[in-house]
Design a protein that fits this description.
The protein is α/β, with parallel strands linked by helices and about 375 residues long. The chain has helices spanning about 10-20, 25-45, 45-55, 60-85, 125-135, 150-160, 175-180, 195-205, 230-245, 260-275, 275-285, 290-295, 305-315, 315-320; strands at about 90, 100-105, 110-115, 140, 165-170, 185-190, 210-215, 220-225, 255-260, 320-325, 330, 335, 340, 360-365. Helix 8 (about 195-205) links the parallel strand 6 and strand 7 (about 210-215).
Length: about 375
């Protein structure tokens, strides 16, 4: 289902009329929409699983853990806290204002634009929708066109379970996003990369629209000396999950690289190399004995992103730093979880956000 029009003025006008009617300010309306999301997640679970597998190759366990389960938890949390969030709070005033009193009264923004991302197409759509609904706003959602099946399921299911007069989905590519941003919104929530984030912020500045940007970046894990063998194994498991276990590393909150001291490097590398079997065992525990054939590791989203990751890996200085993994299969958009030891800092992989299943370990003389 695709609702693409050249001019969104009509949609925005209709949404503003709904908001100005006061309908979305009612607690009953907010609760009904939050309960609608819970019903959607339960009754359309199989459709969501199929869409995430088709677009991203996500195993249904990963899909439930990272999208359906977390969204359901957020919706229930909002339902449980809605009364408190809607209540006014007494405000402290300076002595000079005596004997007056003041209150802080929560007010919705109005028309909220949510531009979600492809790596968690349901989670990064419904999480901000839950916040917008709980605050009493009307919403336009623009899903990512890079996950087209998920976008279609979002559009169809939101139409069936939520108030279409107040919550609308507009599908399409970058040109649709650009046209939406030409209009005035009361709040914009964007998840994606810095380049598009700059465009969103620039467009919002024309109308002084408040913006939430959820962007990525180089996010390291700092590993200091760990004396306990048990704690080392726990660290390995957490690093494995934080890097490879979430959408094949295609996550802005994933570990981008490890930083550790040279004095501990031998211990850490020994842990990786000496315990390659442990590493394989943990990967097997998470994904099965043959990740590329068991369909338990998410695939790279498309050929463009696959080529970008392949380009990072095939630089000679990077290839020579591979300590584990390195297998790639372009036809299936599969990249094996790969560990690199001290790739040069001037290589592209250490300058750009990796956003994939490649994990460099960088050693420094001292962590201080």
């Amino acid at each position: 289902m695709e609702a693409i029009v050249d001019d969104f003025e009509g949609e925005l006008k209709a949404l503003r009329e709904v908001f100005n009617s006061g309908k979305t300010r009612e607690a009953s309306w907010r609760r009904a929409q939050l309960k609608g999301i819970l019903s959607l997640l339960k009754e359309r679970e199989s459709d969501i699983f199929k869409a995430l597998y088709q677009d991203l190759g996500k195993h249904h366990v990963e899909a439930y853990r990272d999208e359906i389960g977390t969204v359901a938890k957020s919706a229930n949390y909002a339902l449980g806290n809605l009364k408190k969030w809607m209540s006014s709070k007494r405000a402290k005033l300076p002595l000079a204002s005596f004997p007056s009193s003041g209150k802080l009264i929560p007010e919705p923004f109005g028309v909220v634009l949510i531009i979600s991302s492809w790596n968690f197409p349901f989670g990064l759509s419904f999480e901000p929708i839950i916040g917008a609904i709980a605050a009493g706003n009307v919403v336009i959602l623009k899903p990512s066109e890079l996950a087209p099946t998920c976008s279609s399921v979002l559009a169809d299911s939101i139409r069936d379970y939520l108030d279409n007069a107040a919550i609308r989905v507009i599908e399409g590519g970058p040109h649709v996003g650009e046209k939406l941003l030409r209009h005035r919104f009361d709040k914009i929530f964007f998840t994606g990369g810095a380049r598009v984030g700059q465009a969103v912020m620039t467009a919002a500045a024309r109308n002084l629209t408040p913006v939430t940007l959820e962007l990525g970046g180089k996010c390291p894990a700092v590993v200091d000396f760990i004396s306990s063998s048990r704690d080392r194994k726990i660290a390995v498991k957490r690093i494995l999950w934080g890097k490879f276990g979430v959408c094949a590393g295609q996550a802005c909150i994933g570990i981008d690289y490890i930083v550790t001291s040279k004095t501990f490097a031998s211990t850490l590398i020994t842990l990786w190399m000496y315990q390659v079997e442990l590493l394989k065992k943990e990967i097997n525990t998470l994904f099965g004995y043959n990740p590329k054939d068991t369909n338990t590791v998410a695939k790279i989203i498309n050929k463009k992103h696959f080529s970008r990751l392949k380009g990072l890996l095939v630089e000679p200085a990077v290839m020579s730093s591979i300590a584990y993994g390195g297998y790639i299969e372009e036809d299936r958009l599969f990249i094996e979880p790969t560990i690199l030891l001290d790739p040069p800092l001037d290589t592209t992989i250490m300058k750009e956000e990796i956003f994939g299943p490649l994990l460099p370990i960088i050693t420094v003389r001292t962590l201080s």
